[in-house]
Design a protein that fits this description.
Number of helices of chain B: 12
Helix content of chain A: 25-40%
Largest interface: A-B, 63 and 59 residues
Largest sheet of chain A: 7 strands, mixed
Structural class of chain A: alpha+beta
Helix content of chain B: over 70%
Distance between the termini of chain A: 53 Å
Number of strands of chain A: 20
Radius of gyration of chain A: 24 Å
Radius of gyration of chain B: 24 Å
Number of strands of chain B: 0
Strand content of chain B: under 5%
Number of helices of chain A: 14
Oligomer: heterodimer
Order of helices and strands of chain B: HHHHHHHHHHHH
Chain lengths: 538, 306
């Protein structure tokens, strides 16, 4: 006899969670016995914040920074022509105003007060130099591909930049988010040494795997009483990051504290936990090279068989919203009117029967699939495994260290897998991941999905400049994607920041950006002042 | 002695060659691509091909291996793919931290093991022996990943005596050194106890006792030195596990050492950096074993290195 699915799943989930909890629980009990507050004493100049990050940045040079740690830090040191605000809208950074004289050209008028940290003014020449550097294939910048739609860039005068695109390109402003370096700044050869920027901070020192120190750019505006600098400390162990927050050594950590530790940290009066809606999108991808998965009934059955509410509540400790698609409700192009797959194992079994996979005596069907995972993704794999087993699908979970896992995904060597897209802003992302031209090696359509109607719409979406028309196009794309299921949308991950209550003025960004650090105050008082979470942008 | 020393140094060459060949083969056998790790999968096929060519990764493996050996022969470990810096610079940056940690771990192990081993060995079967050996069993059984955070919670968070993580003064070294050294201390203490129990009945100890020395005095003044040889052998062998253990300890204590450099390099499939790190570990291991041989001579004049 097969146990009732929900009980069984709950049991499997709780088993998956129990070991680390027990391990830590013992430690935390010990800790709570004599909880006390101790102020920070280690390696941090007065008036500086300590932010714990999990990995060492590889290069904060904006022409090369691609990993999360590097990108976060780079945007504090380098200004770009435009940036994304806390509501996900493009706003001027170096650009005071933007014109669109024709379908294929943009003119950026730069503000005149921007200064590099050596005091020299930032001009259109620096912008042009930065873009020319990246688009020169000889410099091997990983940002080259993102600038491919740009045909030319020119310095019209000292404070005016002209950009011409190869064709009308709706998401053109995304290309204007490249951090600007001074004209003539050499490339990466040699060392970590990054060029200077015009952002609110400048790099003081970097000790790989240890810490990176930023201090105020003396030539950038500084709000009164704002923190004098930031020490990014690299702390790879998640438990230790939580301990550092508890001890008060670390002032801030975002999206790198395990959900099961949040309750403990929330209970500490000196810490504030700020949860805000995030745009990071977790999905389950199918491999369309496999004929079994090309059957829409099988994909829908899998979508119905996954209890995403249970996963969000238990595995993620409630720090996620169940997703209906790639774009969050905060996004201007979001369409709520799409097919949803609420947990329905009965419907899943019916669809599998229809697809020609009848259940055997033991309830299992002749459908065995492989879920590839990184070590971090293994627990999710096991949860999905248990859920699919309850509808008769045998799922094998194979986890490898990240580089091997990633290589498998790149080469299409998986049936199912789950990954996350971080920082989706423009619906252009649908083109990147679902257009049939974007199949690897030169794109992100890892499941080799192909749907001519989606191809047509996402390509049209890129060429359409009118916002209302674009919104209509992507409303269709979202409906189609929800019906045809190239992905099963799992959840949107909340941004969870844990910080000392002494920090005032933190503003959460849906993409997890730390830009508000330029205005952050390290106060002595008790009352936290945390700006409201990012709301809808319309 | 000098001849022996020269021969041992020369023997490092085949060791280095063997280790680098094995590492080269292994790291190239496992799936993963440094170029994609670097460019991300949004890169175009052209960019990937371009970067692969620029880094010389499109050459046949044999040629890449020969180029690597050629560099090595000229003292050049190559350029790190992920960190954009010379491998030698990176290793020199991180190695002192690992040596410091391993050295402190070794010292902690010795400082803990000797009193425990002697207390237990002097009075086998007694309460002190039971207590010391109970501690030893505990020390061997607790994994670094548990002991580290436990020490942090008690000694740093609760009592506030020591800093939590990071590298700095002596105070930063205490917790990682205890974490790293405890297991070795336990093994050494057990070996010392065993070894002392064996020399207890030896003629020279009996003679010392008959001259009027107390049981403990005879054992410590005359037996201990003889009991040390197997302990030192073990110490030499276990120094390798100390280096291996330092990888985990470095992760827990955010210690900027070679272990973390290597783990990150493996993740990024940074071939030259992985090879450099493994080579550094292997040579250190061989050197430690060589040092062990010299310690034998110091503690037992009957031993001659030839």
């Amino acid at each position: 006899m097969i146990p009732r699915p929900s009980t069984r799943i709950a049991r499997d989930l709780s088993r998956a969670l129990s070991t680390p909890r027990l391990f830590l629980g013992i430690g935390l009990l010990l800790l709570q016995s004599t909880a006390c507050d101790r102020s920070a004493t280690i390696g941090k100049p007065p008036g500086y914040l300590q932010v714990d990050i999990e990995t060492s940045p590889l290069s904060i040079d904006p022409r090369f920074a691609t990993d999360a740690a590097s990108s976060r830090i780079a945007e504090m040191v380098f200004d770009s022509m435009v940036k994304i605000d806390a509501h996900g809208n493009f706003v001027g950074d170096l650009a005071e105003s933007i014109e669109r004289p024709s379908d294929t050209s943009l003119v950026f008028h730069l503000r005149r007060d921007a200064r590099f940290s050596d005091g020299s003014p930032l001009t259109a020449r620096d912008v042009k130099y930065t873009y020319d550097f990246v688009t020169d294939p000889a410099n091997l910048s990983p940002k080259l591909r993102g600038l491919a739609p740009i045909e030319s860039i020119s310095a019209i005068d000292d404070y005016t930049v002209g950009v011409v695109t190869r064709h009308p390109y709706a998401p053109a402003l995304e290309t204007a988010m490249l951090g600007v370096v001074p004209s003539g700044a050499p490339g990466i050869a040699g060392s970590f040494g990054a060029p200077i920027g015009s952002g609110p901070f400048r790099l003081v020192s970097f000790a790989r795997d240890e810490k990176l120190v930023l201090e105020r750019n003396p030539f950038a505006p500084r709000p009164e009483a704002a923190a004098g600098g930031i020490v990014f400390k690299i702390v790879p162990d998640p438990t230790v990051r939580a301990l550092e927050l508890a001890e008060g050594v670390c002032d801030f950590a975002e999206n790198n504290v395990e959900p099961y530790l949040l309750g403990y940290l929330k209970a500490r009066p000196e810490l504030a936990v700020v949860e805000s809606p995030g745009s990071a999108y977790q999905y389950l991808a199918f491999n369309f090279r496999d004929p079994r998965l090309r059957d829409i009934r099988v994909r829908r059955a899998i979508a119905y068989a996954i209890d995403r509410d249970a996963i969000a509540a238990s595995m993620l400790g409630g720090t996620a919203r169940v997703a209906s698609g790639m774009l969050t409700p905060e996004n201007w192009a979001y369409n709520a009117d799409v097919t949803r797959y609420n947990y329905d194992p009965v419907a899943a079994r019916r669809l599998l029967d229809q697809a020609g996979y009848p259940a055997g005596r033991d309830g299992m069907r002749a459908l065995a699939l492989v879920f590839k995972a990184s070590p971090e993704g293994r627990r999710l794999g096991e949860a999905i495994q248990a859920m699919l087993r309850s509808v008769g699908i045998a799922l094998t979970v194979r986890s490898n260290e990240f580089a091997t896992f990633y290589s498998d995904i790149q080469r299409g060597n998986f049936d199912l897998t789950s990954l996350q897209w971080v920082g989706i802003n423009d619906p252009h992302h649908y083109y990147m991941v679902f257009d049939s031209k974007m199949t690897p090696p030169s794109g992100l359509n890892r499941g080799s999905y192909s749907n001519p109607e989606i191809d047509r719409l996402v390509e049209l979406g890129d060429l359409t400049l009118d916002v209302a028309q674009r919104r209509a196009i992507y409303a269709q794309v979202q409906q189609l994607a929800a019906d045809d299921l190239p992905y099963v949308s799992l959840w949107w991950q909340d941004n969870v920041a844990v910080m000392s209550r002494r920090l005032q003025g933190f503003v959460p960004f849906p993409n997890g950006s730390l830009r508000s650090f330029s205005n952050l105050i390290l106060a002595g008082g008790e009352s936290p002042s945390i700006a409201a979470a990012a709301g809808p942008n319309e | 002695m000098t001849g022996y020393f020269v021969r041992r140094i020369l023997a490092l060459i085949p060791v280095a060659l063997g280790v680098t060949t094995l590492t080269f083969a292994l790291i190239h056998l496992v799936p993963g691509d440094p170029v994609i790790a670097m460019l991300g999968d949004n890169a175009s096929a052209t960019d990937i091909v371009g970067l692969r060519h620029a880094m010389g990764l499109d050459r046949p493996l044999g040629i890449q291996y020969l180029a690597f050996l050629n560099g090595l022969a000229h003292g050049d470990l190559g350029q790190s793919i992920s960190a954009h810096a010379p491998v030698a610079t990176l290793i020199l940056e991180h190695f002192p931290a690992t040596l410091e940690l391993a050295g402190a771990g070794l010292l902690t192990a010795i400082l803990l093991a000797f009193p425990l081993g002697i207390i237990a060995g002097v009075n086998p079967g007694g309460a002190a022996d039971l207590g010391a050996m109970g501690f030893a069993i505990l020390g061997i059984s607790i994994p670094h990943i548990y002991l580290g955070p436990l020490l942090m919670i008690v000694l740093s968070l609760d009592l506030g005596w020591l800093p939590l993580t990071g590298r700095g003064g002596l105070s930063h070294l205490v917790l990682p050194a205890i974490t790293l050294g405890t297991a070795l201390a336990a093994i050494l203490a057990r070996m010392l106890r065993q070894s002392l129990a064996q020399v207890r009945g030896a003629d020279y100890v009996r003679t010392a006792r008959s001259k009027g020395l107390s049981e403990t005095g005879a054992l410590i003044r005359h037996g201990l030195r003889n009991a040390l040889t197997p302990v030192v052998t073990l110490l030499g062998l276990e120094a390798g596990s100390l280096l291996a253990g330092s990888v985990v300890t470095e992760m827990i204590f955010s210690w900027p050492g070679l272990g973390r450099l290597m783990i990150n390099a493996i993740g990024a499939r940074d071939y030259p950096l992985v090879e450099g790190c493994v080579l550094a570990y292997a040579l250190t291991y061989v050197m430690v074993n060589m040092a062990t041989d010299f310690v034998y001579c110091a503690i037992d004049p009957r031993i001659r290195l030839s």
